[in-house]
Each structure stands twice: as structure tokens, then as C-alpha cells.
Amino acid sequence: MLEKRLTLLRTQFRDLNFAKLSRVFPQIEANIDKLGEIQEHRYLDKKLAAISLVHRSSLVYWPTDKSGIYSNERLEFLGDAFLSFFIASEAMIEHKTLQEGDLSRLRAALVGTENLALKSRDLGIGDCLLVGKAEMNSNPQRRDNVLADAFEAVTAALLLDAGEEKAHMWLLKVFSDDLKTGQDILLKFDSKSKLQQWTQGIIGVPPVYRTIGTEGTPQETFFIVAAFIGNTEIGRASAASKREASKKVAELIVEKIESGKLTKDMIISFFGREK
Q1: Among the four 36, 106, 149, 212, which has the fewest Cβ within 10 Å?
Q2: Which of residues 140, 162, 186 is at a domain's end?
Q3: Catalytic residue among 90, 114, 144, 152
Q4: Is 233 annotated as a binding residue?
Q5: pTM of whole model > 0.85?
Q6: pLDDT for residue 147
Q7: Can you tell me the distance from the alpha carbon of 45 to that of 244, in angstroms, rounded to the nearest whole number?
Q8: Structural domain tally of the chain?
Q9: 89, 196: one domain
């Protein structure tokens, strides 16, 4: 049944005008070969691989006639669903005692934007993407979204070209360490929730996260996020996105709490200074 559905889906991408795409992106053949190396697969249908690498920002190069040109958004949709199923099933197999809530949080952490963007960077998928000039200069948080979406799209391309077993084996290789260290990932993923519950139990309110600056270069900017109780800063961290930076702050503060460097009395004192 699944193979029949994959066959039907493959037909939806046959109208790509490969020659038209190549005129704007002459590197497309090399990029497809690079993607094949990353996924350890030689594409039988290069159109599937090509479409998976076309970000919608590149459509600007065909302002009047986009016929035969497609972005990777539909493949992204399919890849997202397949990836979610893969992580859910493998997490249940690897962690037989985890309950539904923890399994859901683990899946959310592994298929979240930050983690998928990290996978894309580590694998070199971003180097294969075909993007518009404006996207090349976008902010780091936006680039994370693009890279995460690209991971989902190339996963779908592999699924359609090589089949479910090959796609599953590739994902298992990519996420093997993540799945084995699921408990550690859950601890990090839950740091903001833990910190919020802890401070609310003491003073009735959560910490406030503020972006206090940036660092790095125009090409590689990092956001500095600090957490405050009242007017007192209790920790800061930097990352390529504000969301990731706030998670790192929470992790650092939870470590302070567990080591005794940040106590309940200190939190009460910090909160009292605001009044």
C-alpha cells in the first residue's frame, strides 16, 4: 500500500523543467551529486533531488514564467510527516518505559527547528540549496528555518526515490545518537519548564527573557539573551536564534540551581528589589 502511494506521489514532480532550472543554477548537477553523497544514494530521478533543493526564494529568478519550476515546499510537507513518524516509532522502541508526555517532548526536541537546522549544517545540506539573493543575507533565525525545512524536503526526496527502507536507514544513522541519549535531551528540552515552575513556586512568576544585544559578524550573527528576576539578571547566553539562546540560558540557570549557586533566598531577594 505504501509503495503504491509513493508511486502516485512521484508523478507529481515529473513536470520540472530541468534545463530551465539549470540555466539559472548551473551547479545543480553538482549539488545533486553532493546530496547523494550525504544520503549515500544515487538518485534515479534527479528531478526529485533537484526540487528538494529549490528554496522558494529562488523563484524570484523567474518573475514572469514559473512554469516547470517548483520549490521544495510540498516535499517539505511530506518529509515533515515521515520524519515525525520515524522519530515517534524509534523513540518508542529505544525508550520502552517513557510515557506519552515524555515521548511527545522528545519528538518535539528532535524534529524542532534548532535540531534539524543543526543536522543540515553538520551534513552540509545547506551548501546544496538553491536560494535567492535576499535569502543569502537573511538573519540567523530565518536561516535556521530554511535549513530545517530543507532537511525535511531532502528526506522526502530520498523516500520517493529510494523507498521507505532506505529513507528509514538514513534517518536512523543521522539520529542514532539523539535517540540513544533521549533522557539527556529531555532534561535540556525541559530546562525552561523546570526553571519556570521553580521560580513560580517561590515568587509566583516566571523569569523574563530579554534580548540584550548581538555578537559576531554581519554574516554570522548571534543573539544574546538574558533572564531576569525583577531587575536582576540571573544568566545569559548567545546562539544563532533567540529561541535557542533562551533555552541555553535556562540550562545554565538550572545548573546553577542544582549546584547551589542560585538559591530560593536569592530569588526572593532579587524579586523584592523590584518593589
Answers
A1: 212
A2: 186
A3: 152
A4: no
A5: no
A6: 92
A7: 37
A8: 2
A9: no
Domain that holds residue 240: 191-272
Q: For this structure, is 152 an active site residue?
A: yes
Element (H, E) at 158: helix 140-162
Residue 161 annotated as catalytic: no
Task: Tell which of 140, 166, 186 closes a domain.
Answer: 186
* pLDDT tens-digit map of 147-199: 999 999 999 999 999 999 999 999 999 999 999 888 777 766 678 878 887 88
Domain CATH number, residue 107: 1.10.1520.10
Distance, CA of 100 to CA of 123 (rounded, Å): 31
Write out the DSSP string of 160-180: HHH-HHHHHHHHHHHHHHHHH
Do 48 and 158 reside in the same domain of the chain? yes
* Residue 152 counted as an annotated binding residue: yes
Sequence length of the chain is: 275
- Provide the CATH number for the domain around residue 237: 3.30.160.20
Q: Which three cell numbers stand for residue 56?
A: 522558494
Query: d(Cα 82, Cα 264) in Å, to the nearest integer?
Result: 45
